[in-house]
């Protein structure tokens, strides 16, 4: 008999977890604590540099600056309790990476290029791992079964098929990712199903 009830969960994307919150650059002039925050620096019309961390603002004379360093240097300074060089960037050339509202972006990449304004750093909607060009080394957000998110992660592999036939990738904490580069210590990794991983 084929008159059974349809499976309400079959092919219903409404039951999928929402995409993680998008990264939205916000001017550092708007205030708030900066120590350890991810930042983007640059000049409107010229270009942007990311994968940086900030320290608290400093005032010299009548100008306000933000100490900015490469993210790898920030992690090393925190892990080894050492001082590292930080460039002093005028506060009006610094944007803080804030997290936007979940569910406001599409889970798929657009079919055509999206043009952006050069007046501010571009917003980065999350892209599900299965649609990314590559994963290894990229910042990822991991969706948790309770609807939460885990950030400050890096992918250490591309997608592969696990022993149980699921498409997965291996990820690690960002501190372990950077430590791998400065002392060669292989990071601890976690195998995560691809549908729970998003490129930030």
Q: What labels describe this entry?
A:
200 residues, globular
Explained architecture:
The chain is mainly beta and 200 residues long. It has helices at 71-80, 174-183; strands spanning 23-27, 38-43, 47-54, 58-60, 63-70, 87-90, 94-99, 127-128, 139-143, 149-155, 160-161, 167-173, 190-193, 197-199. Helix 1 packs across helix 2. The chain is globular and about 60 Å long.
Oligomer: single chain
What is the gyration radius calculated from CA atoms? 20 Å
What global shape is seen? globular
The portion of residues forming beta strands comes to 35-45%
| Uncertain residue ranges | 5-14
What structural class do the secondary elements suggest?
Answer: mainly beta
Ends apart, CA distance between termini: 48 Å
Helix content: 10-25%
Topology, number of strands:
14
Q: Give the biggest beta sheet.
A: 7 strands, antiparallel
Number of separate helices: 2
Along the chain, the helix and strand elements come as: EEEEEHEEEEEEEHEE
Mean of pLDDT: 88
Outline:
The protein has two helices and 14 strands; from the N terminus they run E-E-E-E-E-H-E-E-E-E-E-E-E-H-E-E. The protein is mainly β and 200 residues long.
Topology overview:
Layout: E1 23-27, E2 38-43, E3 47-54, E4 58-60, E5 63-70, H1 71-80, E6 87-90, E7 94-99, E8 127-128, E9 139-143, E10 149-155, E11 160-161, E12 167-173, H2 174-183, E13 190-193, E14 197-199
Helix pairs in contact: 1-2
